Amino acid sequence: MSKETAEELFNQGLERYKAGEDAATLIPIFKDICEQSPKVASSWICLSWLYLVDNKPTLALKAAQKSVKLNPEDPQGRINLAIAMLDTSQPGVREHIQLAQAMLMVMTELKIEIIENFEDGLRRRPNWASLERVKKWILE
User: Fold this and answer.
1) List of residues 6+ apart from 78 with CB closer than 8 A
2) Which of 18, 51, 94, 100 could lock onto 75 through a cystine, CB 3.0 to 4.6 A?
3) Three-state secondary structure readout of 20-40
4) What is the rounded CA–CA span in Å between residue 6 and residue 121?
């Protein structure tokens, strides 16, 4: 049996998430993906989001920091970092919000995806105060 590539695992994990699978069951898969391909920002972004949805903000913060370090131009990475920072009472949130807003002005096609992610987060974790705040700031 051939070992699946990190990319195959990533795509399968994403599909399972979109199909409604619980974040907690997908975290180990995305941890493996990040270990196999530690320089792929999108994997770290997904892992940080799963941690956020699963209410593990400290782990989310570490994954989001890594994703932003690998790809500072990804607005979702910045948004995840801002949410994790709020959830862990860290200072410096505004910088990431402003950068994400600026990126979304240029990358307008990503705005729809970002809005869908906010809605998904609130479906999976209702009354998520920090996500509500970041959503309001980003979409103002």
Assistant:
1) 68, 96, 97, 99, 100, 103
2) 100
3) CCCHHHHHHHHHHHHHHCCCC
4) 24
User: CA neighbours within 13 Å on the CB side: how many for 125?
Assistant: 19
* Residue 1 covered by a domain: no
In a domain, 101, yes or no: yes
Domain hosting residue 135, numbered range: 6-139
Inside any domain, residue 40? yes
100 in a structural domain: yes
Is the pTM higher than 0.85? The answer reads: yes
Please state the φ and ψ torsions of residue 19, each to the nearest 5 degrees: -75, -5
Domain count for the chain: 1
Distance CA 79, CA 93 (A): 9
Question: Is a pLDDT exceeding 70 seen at residue 75?
Answer: yes
Say yes or no to pLDDT of 3 above 70.
no
CATH number of the domain bearing residue 101 = 1.25.40.10
Element (H, E) at 7: helix 6-18
Check pLDDT > 80 for residue 6: yes
Mean pLDDT, rounded, for 94-119: 94
DSSP-derived 3-state class of residue 127: coil
